[in-house]
Amino acid sequence: MEKRLTMSAMLFSIGFVFMLVVAVGAFFYGVQFGSERIEAKYAAAKEEEDVVDVSATPYQQQDLVSFYLTVFSPYREFQTEWLSTMDQLSRGGNVDAAAAFKSLSKLATEKSQEARSFNMQKSPLLGEAQVAYIRSMNKFKESADWAATSKSADHAALHKSIQAGNAYKAAVSEALAGQSAYYEAMLKWAATVDLNISAEYKTPNPLSIKQWSALPLTVKNFVIGEYLAKRNEMYGFYPHDLTSRVDEFIQSGQASNMKLQTMNSIVELLLNTRAVDPGDFAPNKARYYSAETLPQLPFFYPEQ
Where are the domains of the chain? Predict the structure, then answer.
């Protein structure tokens, strides 16, 4: 009797260990499978670049709005906090750098998760922008994690070190690539509702003031988005804020007085003198763009 009980206990033990091994194996397989699916989902836009004709893809206003709410807004919320902290550092402000960057690291994770919540991959340019913004926030998190553990007591020195870091540079590059793709998607949309607007525009270098002035607003915004991406420097304003300041500079006669002949020279002057602020588009909208075609996105209609 005792022998049979011992044998039963042994079989039970073997069976338990076997089930435990199977359960653990299934768990890790599930984690790996889930991770691979997420990576594949957000890499889809890049993998299909060579086979998808983005110029032939219809972009609906609802797609632009969905992207604004689920991807662009979370990123901008993070960017606002990041720029505020960096500004305090550059000015040598009284800020607890370690605590500030720990908070930014956490915020980057939260906003990155928000940006993943809606699949934009059916619209190639929006899918591309979504991937870029997610990558950007992940890189900002890396930069914030490094800054939070830095031993530097000099805020100005820490500010420079952050900007010199590879993670920060990659974060800015990805964010600007996402912004450029989003404004290009707006151009594709505009071409479907206004036959006078072309879905394709190859920007000449340099772009003369005469050529610039003849462009529709959505094309101008696309040009500025491309320009900022190539410049690879992050600002708090939107591309259309800079567009409106360029037009204001031309219309006021300042470009003529300074003998500036190209859009490029005006943009460089405005950026180098920090003459562009968030919200600059709003006061110029009625003055210059009352008849222009724009999607119903909140940053184009701040008065609503």
Answer: 1-47, 55-189, 201-300
